[in-house]
Amino acid sequence: MTLNTERLILRPFTTEDFDAAYSWGSNPANTRYMSWGPNDEEQTRGFIGQTKPGRDFAVVLRETGAVIGSCGIYADDASDTAELGWILHMDYWKRGYGTELGGELIRYGFEELKLRRIFAPCAAVNYGSYRVMERNGMRREATHVKAFWARVDKEWIDRAEYAILAEEYFKKTTI
Fold it and tell me: Averaged over 28-55, what is the pLDDT?
């Protein structure tokens, strides 16, 4: 399963993606607000080995073929709700790639997977992440106080949860 946007290709991971995945996954600044990491080489190989097509995607720049991040959509057992997640190498932040991949995951979730609801958590202070969600029509539903262990900073911080319903998505896309 491969998804395409104007500037990105979201495709299954291959073992050749190790160097790229290790470059962002081992970087403490890059993984600051993730629930995992920084990863060592073995953890990175484990991540690549457990990815599933149609669920986990390598984020590839269409123009150069460079792998700049990963993203995924994780449906629950009933397959009506899914969680989104993503990480981009910090060299590619603030260029709109997160908004672009987030929009494509939402489209895929509602139009192809026929989901009812999509949500995504983030560190409440992670402006870049929550702006990706807001730009894609997601709304903040909750802030959970000191509910997220920031592994790099070694402290409990607030976690925000954003969501969008299929009816909201289709209303927005038909206007």
Answer: 94
